[in-house]
């Protein structure tokens, strides 16, 4: 059956109109009411739309205003309900024992609304529950060997697919942040993107729990062992087949056996290959962090002041291209430059008497550099630029902060100027890398330290770490 044999042809028309934002927000209001209430009356739905979307409803640009005798909140809310009904998102029916109108949402409407809501929902996904749930289901089924064994296997199979989908989504999200980073043009934007977005939504709530709770390495082997034991146990296969038959499966035993074996083999294969996906997530995360640091270094070493921008404009104006004359004309018309001066107590002075300069002896030309010396000078310059904020220098800075201590907090850190502040930022970005001998736990709140606003942190040496000071 085709999609538009299940849903009306004009179903998506409201999401392509100029009022699409208001229509979608209204649908999300009805979705929430559907989840919270057993029965939704038409008047309740209109009241909820007015309560949550008052401003947006009043700003709607309607082409069907002739259908409303007056433009007010109640009329506009009922207009939305009619629009949803006409396009097939909802149905309006009378209650069984009265003439009160009730709203119902079709099954396909709920599925599509759930998908749309998940696209904009920033709530972090819980990966570890899938792994533990799979382990718990299989462990219980292995011990009980009852009529629910097939249900446990099916749910474990579903959880495994959900885990894979969520991890792939996490991998793609890191790439999205990487692309957003390339569009940033100032250090403040990079720091905001990293600390307020990537670190808060991805690293702290998803990546860090995924690495520290250790659910995949912990439960991976028991899951594989249980399923491999089932594959070699004909009695267990028969128990699962009998459990599936109780579900009134319209399949013979041979078909069920093939289906059961395929599910078990796919779960085993997924967990055996899961390390590859986790390593790719690690790699992408490291690339993102490194790119953030490199772009900050570039921007910090580039003249982004007004003077630098004026220099670039004047350089462009001096290039002999077809647009240069137009640029000069715009500059002449837009910039009215004139000198300004004033008198104060320092303005009076005695003009210095000038004397005619006598011609002096010409300076001797310095010895001509050979090509090898010139190349060496260029290499030294490049090396100095590359080593401006090296990993070794950052680790040395952190060793000085730790001194001989194992644990320090934000209040223990010494910040004596912008250079130290930049080094601390780079050290924070590098704390997950192998070269870092320390780990960081971020605490709620901030501390003003020597004029710099720093997040509250607890920094501790990793186990078996060694001094990096050279």
Please describe what this structure looks like:
The protein has 470 residues and is mainly α. It contains 15 helices and six strands. The chain has three domains: 3-120, Winged helix-like DNA-binding domain superfamily/Winged helix DNA-binding domain (Arc Repressor Mutant, subunit A, Orthogonal Bundle); 128-300, no CATH class; 388-461, no CATH class. Helix 8 (215-231) runs antiparallel to helix 10 and helix 9 crosses helix 10. 60% of the residues lie in helices and 8% in strands.
Task: Describe the secondary-structure layout.
Blueprint lengths: L19 H17 L3 E2 H17 L14 H14 L3 E5 L6 E5 L1 H14 L7 H17 L4 H34 L4 H26 L2 H17 L2 H12 L7 H48 L5 H13 L5 H11 L36 H16 L4 H12 L4 E3 L8 H12 L8 E12 L2 E10 L9
Antiparallel strand pairs: 1-3, 2-3, 4-6, 5-6
Helix pairs in contact: 1-2, 2-3, 5-6, 5-8, 6-7, 6-10, 7-10, 8-10, 9-10, 14-15
**What gap, in angstroms, lies between the N and C termini?**
71 Å
Order of helices and strands: HEHHEEHHHHHHHHHHHEHEE
Largest sheet: 3 strands, antiparallel
Structural class estimated from helices and strands: mainly alpha
Mean pLDDT: 79
Low-pLDDT runs of 5+ residues are none
Envelope shape: extended
Number of discrete domains: 3
Number of strands: 6
Strand order of the largest sheet: 1-3-2
Number of helices: 15
Determine Rg (CA atoms, Å): 34 Å
Percent helix, as a range, is: 55-70%
Percentage of residues in DSSP E strands: 5-15%
């Amino acid at each position: 059956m085709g999609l538009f044999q299940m849903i009306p042809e004009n179903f998506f028309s409201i999401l392509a109109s100029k009022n699409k934002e208001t229509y979608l927000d209204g649908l999300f209001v009805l979705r929430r009411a559907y989840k919270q209430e057993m029965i939704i009356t038409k008047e309740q739905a209109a009241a909820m739309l007015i309560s949550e979307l008052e401003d947006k409803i009043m700003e709607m640009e309607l082409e069907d205003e002739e259908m409303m005798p007056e433009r007010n909140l109640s009329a506009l809310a009922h207009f939305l309900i009619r629009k949803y009904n006409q396009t097939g998102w909802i149905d309006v029916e009378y209650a069984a024992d009265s003439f009160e109108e009730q709203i119902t949402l079709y099954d396909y409407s709920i599925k599509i609304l759930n998908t749309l809501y998940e696209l904009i929902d920033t709530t972090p996904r819980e990966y570890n529950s899938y792994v533990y749930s799979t382990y718990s289901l299989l462990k219980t089924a292995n011990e009980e060997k009852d009529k629910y064994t097939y249900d446990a296997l099916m749910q474990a199979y579903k959880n495994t697919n959900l885990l894979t989908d969520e991890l792939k989504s996490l991998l793609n999200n890191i790439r999205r942040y990487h692309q957003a980073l390339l569009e940033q043009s100032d250090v403040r934007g990079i720091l905001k993107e990293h600390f307020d977005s990537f670190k808060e939504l991805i690293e702290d709530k998803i990546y860090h729990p995924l690495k520290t709770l250790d659910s995949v390495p912990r439960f991976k082997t028991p899951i594989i062992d249980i399923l491999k034991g089932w594959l070699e146990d004909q009695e267990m296969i028969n128990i699962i087949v009998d459990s599936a038959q109780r579900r009134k499966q319209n399949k013979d035993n041979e078909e069920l056996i093939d289906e059961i074996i395929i599910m078990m083999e796919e779960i085993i294969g997924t967990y055996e290959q899961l390390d590859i996906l986790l390593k790719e997530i690690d790699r992408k995360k490291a690339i993102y962090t490194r790119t953030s640091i490199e772009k900050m270094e570039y921007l910090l070493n580039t003249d982004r002041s007004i003077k630098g921008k004026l220099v670039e404009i004047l350089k462009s104006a001096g290039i002999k291209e077809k647009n240069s004359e137009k640029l000069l004309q715009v500059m002449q018309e837009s910039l009215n430059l004139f000198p300004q001066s004033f008198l104060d107590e320092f303005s009076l002075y005695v003009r210095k008497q000038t004397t005619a300069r006598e011609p002096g002896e010409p300076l001797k030309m310095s010895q001509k550099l050979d090509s090898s010396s010139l190349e060496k000078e260029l290499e030294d310059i490049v090396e100095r630029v590359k080593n401006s904020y090296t990993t070794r220098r950052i680790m040395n800075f952190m060793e000085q902060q730790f001194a001989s201590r194992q644990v320090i907090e934000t209040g223990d850190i010494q910040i004596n100027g912008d250079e130290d502040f930049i080094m601390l930022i780079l050290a924070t970005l590098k704390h997950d890398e192998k070269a870092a001998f320390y780990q960081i736990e971020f605490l709620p709140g901030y501390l003003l330290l020597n004029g710099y606003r720093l997040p509250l942190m607890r920094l501790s040496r990793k186990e078996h770490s060694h001094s990096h000071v050279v």
